Amino acid sequence: MPDYAKRFKTVDTNAVHAGAPEPSIEGAVIAPVFQSANYLMAEEDSYDAVRYIRLSNSPNHLLLQARLAVLESGDAALVTGSGMAAISAAILAFVSQGEHLLAQRTLYGGTQSFLDEDAPRFGIDTSVIDIADPRGAVAWRQQLRPDTKLVYVESISNPLMEVGDLEAVVAFARQHDLVTIIDNTFATPVNFRPLEIGIDLVVHSATKYLNGHSDIVAGAVIGSQEKVGRVRHLLLHLGGALDPHACFLLERGLKTLPLRVRRQGATAQRLAEMLSRRPEVRKVNYPGLESDPGHAYAGRLFSGFGGMLSFYLEEAARAESFLTRVQIPLHAPSLGGVETLVVQPSRSTHLGQTEEDRERLGITDELVRISVGIEDPDELEADFVQALEG
Ligand code: PLP
Prior knowledge:
Radius of gyration: 21 Å
Bound molecules: pyridoxal-5'-phosphate
């Protein structure tokens, strides 16, 4: 059996080499796709050790999981069939019937719907906390219950790009013996590694930046051996394993993650600054802007602000016209690929929520979300300007 312990010092080198099998399999420079559902028995002493795709232990899984653990500064990682498989399995591994969790006020719509619609059917209740609230722990304590087990947050929230006081969240969770889970999809381990500040588990929609090419759906959970082991054991039963071919594509995408994320962040900063000067734009949400409420928190913890931003136009009709006038960006959901995407969150990611909820959170029809790609920044900026002026 090869060893998957290879690691170097920097994110750039690790993105290319960490976890690569040693010795290399048949001398292959790129680990091949192991399109085999099962493997010969070799005196395994537990069910988890039996080699079978659903148990996430093919060579493609082992390599990828080793690399993701290194990139996120964790001891262990698990890849999953989607980001939602990672999120739902991670939450259900730590909260049981009759228990309670605290969740950030605005979350990715799928996570929000899982907490609002599915978790209650398993007897799991959620209370909302505002992690950007300067009163922090004082306000959050009011939501605590004797059966509270977990705090769930996003490092940069979807679609309002909120960055909260994550260090205060960790301190609060430690004080009250709560497990912390963070969705680090938008920040990526290039810009922020939450385990280093004491978060327990990181989850990702690997569909997005980690893969970066909009051609697979995948997820990941990273943390300690013990905590990831608990999620893995549950995922065996839920059945949300990732296919080896998707593992191969995700591993390939990871190699360019640092290059893509830095380029996307630099262009996003430039577009956010341009948009915030435009008369047609009411407000820009981007933690890289000094005026952004999350800027101070993000500046302290992150090494970059990411490639996602959103902005409000004056009217919904203006937002619709912007979406049809842009020439380079594609009007599509999802994010984190090499191509720039534009979307109205109220009509896509958050369509599953009621209009009343969307209105309360500020996810209105005037809001446009941009996932910045790697295209030429001058060309993109000029395209945005012509679309705004139309
Ligand atoms: N987390 C965030 C921040 C997302 O934006 C998404 C999807 O858009 C998910 C999780 C869910 O991931 P997936 O679609 O891979 O299940």
